[in-house]
Amino acid sequence: MENIIIINASPRAPQSNSKKYAEIFSKHSRLQTEYFELNKRNQDELINKIEEYSQLLFVFPLYADGLPAPFLDFLKMLERALLKHKPIVSILINCGFIEHSQNDIAVEMIKLFCNQNEYIFGSVLKIGAGEAILETPFKKLVEWKIKKLASSICTQEYKTLEVSMPISKKTYISKSTEYWVKYGQKYNVSKEEMESMKIE
Asked: Taking each helix axis from N to C terminus, what angle separates 69-80 and 43-50, rounded to the nearest 10 degrees?
């Protein structure tokens, strides 16, 4: 029986946008679906569970143009694990940049892992403006693409998908700056302090 395990590899998984994306995927998945959040305490447990599934979906944010450090550590452990059954690996990745292409390097890192460890690489959805898009009218675009991702994994017709806000980069920067300035004001932090390289 085809089934899928979703692993949220965000460092802040319980409060992450990755969790929200995983929930949308689960709603549209036609396979038996289970969701887990990666943390330091459950890495061995998740590696043992992976063998029980035919499909594996990693959901995570872009960190410094690559994979979050805890996720990298998990992949190193998975590399050493002698699994008898390896599921097909798909990705749902989001970044704060408006360009979904900013996710490309991280996707290539997962593809390299798969190639070097004999995992089949499945589908990928690259989301731009991932920190903001769910709070806008463009949320429907994301839901539509996640539904397509779920369908591609179910039918095993694997593909590369992408989505972002259909607005200009200039508008996106202007609106995001406005958001962060207001956010800083809530904690008595000025725009100048946020722009400073000084860390207390």
From this structure: 50
With beta carbons less than 8 A apart as the criterion, state whether 93 and 55 touch: no
Closest to 119 measured CA to CA, from 59, 154, 79: 79
Query: How many whole angstroms separate alpha carbon 114 and alpha carbon 121?
Result: 6
CA distances from 199 to 73, 150, 193 (A): 27, 42, 10
pLDDT band at residue 191 under the 50/70/90 scheme: confident
- Write down the CATH number for the domain with range 3-166: 3.40.50.360
| CA nearest to 87, candidates 49, 55, 113, 123 | 55
Q: List, for residues 96-153, the tens digit of each pLDDT value.
A: 999 999 999 999 999 999 999 999 999 999 999 988 899 899 999 999 999 999 999 9
Indicate the domain borders of the chain: 3-166, 168-200
- 166: three-class secondary structure by DSSP: coil
Crossing angle for the helix pair 17-28 and 139-155, nearest 10 degrees? 50
Question: What is the structure's pLDDT at 27?
Answer: 97
Residue 121 tokens read as 């690489």
**Cross-strand partners of 32:** 3
